[in-house]
Amino acid sequence: MSSSLSDKPKCILVGVPLDCGKTRKGCLMGPDAYRTAGLANALGSLGHSVEDRGNVAPAPFTPRDHPKLVALEENIAWTESLADASQAALNDGLPIFMGGDHALSLGTVLGAMRHAETQNRPLFVLWLDAHTDFHTPHTTDSGNLHGTPLGYVTGRDGFDGFPAIADPLPHAQVAIIGLRSVDAAERDALQQSDVTYVDMREIDETGIARPLTAFLDRVAAANGLLHVSLDVDFLDPSVAPAVGTTVPGGATVREGHLVMEMLHDSGLMTSLDLVELNPFLDERGRTASLMVDLTASAFGRRVFDRPTRAY
User: Tell me, what's the pLDDT at 306?
Assistant: First the structure.
């Protein structure tokens, strides 16, 4: 890939202070944490032009109590506004959605699907996460809608009130890597689907590069667009503590960087979510800084170019 500025995608930063996908608060501070940790400067130093479009706001909504679901109307409102923001940003460059909890992907992936349709190209989704997020409003026990984005975009039932999806994302165009916390309902649903799912045992046995390479080869063969959703809890909490859904046994720093370096080498990524960063739970900004470093790897920073961090 050429290193000239004209060959590099324009990075469009979109802040998403969404904190309604679960009950534990703090993710609304995520966008400012990424800005403070120097995300724009890191991308600019790699030769990318960077535009920060500020923060998205939800569409107007009236909150109502629900016997099971957390902030249903607010999540719907965010989905509507983010689908529009995602599609608009994709028309202009490569958007990076600075979240915010994982409910933001209800909208960002929907916008990417709409954009892909206008390009007459298939959309693929890479989900880097400890959880499947394949629930529906009917199957979730917690009522937290940050566990439902993949259920929504693949056309599962129960999303009444959300923007309708005429052509759901095919299961075969989704890969979830990093799994280590899957409940029975999600496991059963996944096993009946064509979704690619890779748990930490498989990664331990074969490495993370093998399944990722296979998925990226499928994206390339189909001339697909690729939306990547990176959850902080993909990483082990010992290196990324700023998340409310910590699950021990996650990806190492090197595994995280390898994934992002491979994404850069492939040239396939067209949009990126950075989700579930809760600065309230961080230690001197170490998780925000690591997420910025990982993003830089996805945009061309090499292993020998990395700065030394002092926490």
Answer: 67
| 32 tagged catalytic | no
Report whether pLDDT(305) > 90.
Answer: no
Q: Is residue 172 part of a domain?
A: yes
- From the candidates 273, 276, 282, 293, which is the catalytic residue? 276
Question: Is 131 annotated in the active site?
Answer: yes
The number of distinct structural domains making up the chain is: 1
Residue tagged active-site, from 48, 73, 101, 102: 102
Contact 149, 133 (CB under 8 A): yes
Active site (annotated) includes residue 74? no
Query: Is 227 in the active site?
Result: no
Angle at 105 between CA 64 and CA 148, to 5 degrees: 60
3 found inside a domain: no
Given 19, 80, 101, 233, the catalytic residue: 233
276: annotated active-site residue:
yes
**Which tens digits make up the pLDDT trace of 233-267?**
999 999 999 999 889 999 999 999 999 999 999 99
Residue 231 annotated to the active site? yes
The CATH number given to whatever domain includes residue 97 is 3.40.800.10
User: Does residue 2 carry a pLDDT above 60?
Assistant: no
Tokens of 266: 């492939």
Catalytic residue among 19, 74, 80, 129: 129
For 112-158, the pLDDT digits (tens) are 999 999 999 999 999 999 999 999 999 999 999 999 999 999 999 99
Domain that holds residue 293: 9-304
Residues 57, 309 contacting (CB under 8 angstroms): no
194 is known as an active-site residue: no
* 8 A C-beta contact, residue 276 and residue 104: no
- Catalytic pick among 74, 80, 186, 231: 231
Active-site residue, 160 included: no
For 90-120, give one letter per residue: b (16+ CB within 10 A) or e. Answer: beebbbbbbbbbbbbbbbbbbbbbbbbeeee
Instruction: Read off the pTM.
Output: 0.96
**What is the pLDDT, as a whole number, of residue 95?**
98
Establish if 224 belongs to a structural domain: yes
